[in-house]
C-alpha cells in the first residue's frame, strides 16, 4: 500500500514537471511577436490603363503634338513672305495652214485628195494651152458680188495647170481703161470653154472690184447647166483652184 501510494505521486509530479518544462521551453524558443510597423504610403501617380487590343478594330491615331502645329504655321508664314517671280515668254505661233482646194467642182468626190492652191508667180497667158470658144447661143445672167483687192488680183493672174489632175485652165483679159476684166474658164484636157466672169475693178483706187455677170455653156457638152449650177461651179472652182471664196451674191 505504501509502495503504490508513493509511486503514484512521483509519477504525477514527474508528468507535471514535464508538462511545465515543455511549455516553458516552447515559450522560450517561440519568436517574439512583433507588431507590423506601419509606414506612410507614398502617393502614386495615376496611370492610364491601356485596354487590350481588340481584334478587327483599328485604334485611332494619336493627336498631333503642339510643336508640329507650330512648325507648320511657321512654315506657312515663311511661304507667304516669299517673293513671287514671274517669267514672261513670248511664243510665236505659226498661222493655220490654208484648207486644200479642189481642182474640179462639178464632178468632185470625197475620196479624191486635193492640194492647196499655190499663188502663180506670173499671169497665165491665153496662148499657154489650145482652147475653143463658146458654142452657139451661150447663156448670160447678172451676178452681183463684191471682190476685195486680193480676190481681184487672183482672178487677174489666173491658173495654169501643171499636172494631169489639174482640170482647169484659167486666164483673164483686161482690164481696159474703164476697169473691165474678163476671166475665162476652160477645161485643161480638151480646151472647151465652160464659163466666163465679168469683173469691174477700181483701177485708180486700191484695186477692189465687183463681179457683175456670168456667161456659161448651157449646151449638151456641159450637160445643159442651169444658172444655179453654173454659179455653183464657178464659186467652188474659184475656191478650190484660185483660193478665192466668193461671197453670197444675187
UniProtKB/TrEMBL annotation:
Species whose genome carries this gene: Plenodomus tracheiphilus IPT5
Where is region (Disordered) located? 1-46, 89-121
Q: What protein name does the entry list?
A: Uncharacterized protein
List compositional bias (Basic residues) regions by residue number.
Answer: 11-21
Biased composition (Polar residues) is annotated at 1-10, 34-44, 89-100
